[in-house]
Design brief:
Blueprint: E1 3-8, H1 12-20, E2 26-32, E3 36-38, H2 43-47, E4 57-59, H3 60-63, E5 70-74, E6 77-81, E7 86-89, E8 94-96, E9 99-102, E10 106-108, H4 116-119, H5 126-145, H6 149-155, E11 157-161, H7 165-181, E12 195-199, H8 211-224, E13 226-229, E14 233-238, E15 241-246, E16 249-254, E17 257-260, E18 264-266, H9 269-277, E19 287-288, E20 294-295, E21 298-303, E22 308-309, E23 311-312, E24 315-316, H10 321-339, E25 354-359, E26 362-366, E27 371-373, H11 375-388, H12 392-408
Parallel strand pairs: 1-2, 1-9, 2-5, 9-21, 11-12, 11-17, 12-13, 19-22
Antiparallel strand pairs: 3-4, 6-7, 7-8, 10-18, 14-15, 15-16, 20-21, 23-24, 25-26, 26-27
Helix pairs in contact: 1-10, 5-6
Length: 422
């Protein structure tokens, strides 16, 4: 009987795990509640009208259609029967496994303030991105209609909570929309007068980067019109503004558009598995895994990506797509070793660098052997993200749209869709 591998999740980790098993004598079942793979690092470009959802997604079945040992199921894994070696689906169905690869990813996390999600959407799904896009462009439309100067100013003020890569990239893109894309489109307002505020509890923007790169990033943010407020803790968010405490005590910003980029937490599936395995998750809900990516005492369960807590050289690896991708590729050798009765190889992450883009010709890059910012970092960011996109069609379309946007300053996906208040 063929060895059965179940992969829970079709993100970066799950997709690479499936590909890594292409030539192995195993039956692979990939299960995801969506029928597509999402390139999450570019979600903010959908949220700001640079790209359309189809540009950063690829149908799972199509991507894996040439791999005959893989079948794809559109369903949600809600639980795992560890003792019975089977995953439980949302419709009550069960799929047995010999090896389980948990790559369910993470979800938005508001640190216990779930009510904030309604007024401050985050960026984790396509629906999140289109909702953020709607709110950004609706804000300019409402500012155009506003007759009260105070209300108009509130509509033209945007607050992004979280100064990590997502928050910085999003704030920079909103600034470009105001300064370039919409500059000549309105008659009653001047979009370039919009205020973009970036809030974070850390002492500097882009905390994962070195202090010198954080400083460069902040200078570039100021140049495009973004004002960062660091060392502040958000205490309240509502439809009319954000409350926070910082070095100057309690403060409140009056604004109609707030976007959350401050935190994620592993999907609850990780906690359910850890509980059955007698393990404790970390603060982010991640399952602790060993050097071969397996859960302690259960070599048949591998956890990768955002749902895995893996320590290397005394440090926990961050929840970034390069980590998930490399762990996904490592699944192939691990499963092959297990099938052949051999010891599983140990995983080691190779840090190839991190990047964050601020805007047109503005970015920072840390490649380990070199740290730099400006146009060169921006170009490197473009090339890397084009290379990581799945599918030739997507790479070509994104390249064409970015080129058109660069010469015209126009964002072609500025549709306002959906319903509801801002």
């Amino acid at each position: 009987m063929s060895h059965k591998v179940v992969i829970a999740g079709g993100g970066f980790g799950g997709m690479n795990a499936a590909r890594a098993l292409a030539r192995q004598p195993v039956e692979v079942t990939m299960i995801d509640k969506r029928n597509f793979h999402l390139f999450q690092p570019m979600l903010y470009q959908v949220a700001t009208g640079s790209l359309s959802p189809g540009d950063i997604t690829a149908p799972l079945r199509h991507v894996l259609s040439g791999q005959k040992n893989v079948r794809v199921l559109m369903a949600e894994v809600t639980d795992v029967d560890v003792a019975g070696r089977a995953v439980v689906l949302d419709d009550g169905g069960r799929v047995p496994y010999d090896t389980l690869v948990v790559a369910a990813g993470a979800r938005n996390f508001y640190f216990g303030n779930d009510a904030w999600e309604r007024v401050a959407p985050a960026l984790k799904t396509i629906e999140d991105a289109t909702e953020v896009r709607r709110r950004i462009f609706v804000a300019f439309e409402n500012a155009e209609r506003a007759t009260d100067p105070t209300a108009r100013k509130e509509w033209l003020r945007f607050t992004v909570v979280g100064a990590g890569p997502t928050g910085v990239e999003l704030a920079g893109a909103i600034a470009e929309i105001a300064r370039d894309t919409l500059r000549h489109d309105f008659r009653q307002i001047r979009p370039e007068e919009a205020e973009i505020l970036l809030l974070d509890g850390s002492t500097r923007v882009l905390p994962p980067f070195t202090p010198d790169l954080s400083e460069k990033a902040e200078r570039q943010l100021i140049r495009v019109g973004v004002r960062a407020r660091t060392s502040v803790r958000v205490t309240g968010i509502d439809e009319r503004g954000v409350e926070f405490t910082g070095p100057h005590g309690p403060e409140r910003i009056q604004c109609r558009t707030t976007i959350w980029a401050a935190g994620v937490r592993a999907e609850p599936l990780g906690e359910r598995i850890a509980r059955q395995c007698g393990a404790d998750v970390d603060r982010g809900g991640r399952i602790p895994v060993g050097a071969d990516l397996s859960v302690a005492g259960h070599p048949e369960i591998l956890a990768i990506g955002d749902i895995a807590w893996f320590e290397q050289d005394g440090q926990s690896l961050p929840g970034m797509c390069p980590v998930a991708m490399q762990q996904g590729w490592h699944v192939g050798p691990v499963v092959a070793a297990r099938v052949n009765g051999q010891a599983a190889p140990l995983f080691r992450y190779r840090n190839k660098g991190t990047m964050a883009v601020i805007g047109r010709n503005a970015a920072v890059a840390d490649l380990g052997f070199a740290r730099f910012g400006g146009a060169l970092a921006w170009l490197a960011w473009l090339l890397v993200h084009i290379a990581y996109l799945i599918g030739f069609r997507n790479r070509l379309l994104v390249l064409i749209q970015w080129g058109f946007q660069y010469v015209s300053f126009n964002r072609g996906a500025r549709l306002i869709t959906g319903r509801g208040g801002n």
